[in-house]
From TrEMBL:
InterPro entries: DUF1003. The lineage of its organism: Bacteria, Bacillati, Actinomycetota, Actinomycetes, Streptosporangiales. Coiled coil: none annotated. It comes from Actinomadura rubrisoli. Keywords: Membrane, Transmembrane, Transmembrane helix. The chain crosses the membrane at residues 42-59, 71-91. This is DUF1003 domain-containing protein. Pfam families: DUF1003.
Amino acid sequence: MTTRLDQPREIRRTLVPRPHYDPESFGRLSERIARFLGTARFLVYMTVFVALWIGWNLVAPSALRFDPYPFIFLTLMLSLQASYAAPLILLAQNRQDDRDRVQYEQDRSRNERTIADTEYLTREIAGLRIALSEVVTRDFLRSELQQILKEADAKDQHSPL
């Protein structure tokens, strides 16, 4: 994030410095994670992991078991994963909503420009039609010339040579 030079910096003095991160990079990372969490591959990986965990802790010798039957550690790990997954998914959805809102605004402005252009062209075509109604068309000129020729032929036939 760039600081603005026309505004004074806010001075904060804290005992423990706050971590700084790039919100855009973090947002992209959260979208990648959320996209992965919504795939069949993740479900297969998670199912295999849980099945291996439970299988190992049921079948392995007692000395090698690290999470006995109620599988409390597995439950804790799945709860931790869910507690991180939910906010990441919400963050990704909020970013998508922002992109959709920008796209909607761009579509709306494009539609308004298209409507304005169409109305302008409609007025231009109407103006051309009005102007053309006052101009002699080819068909009208042809019919007038044919009528003059007929009148001239009629005069030639009635006039003695």
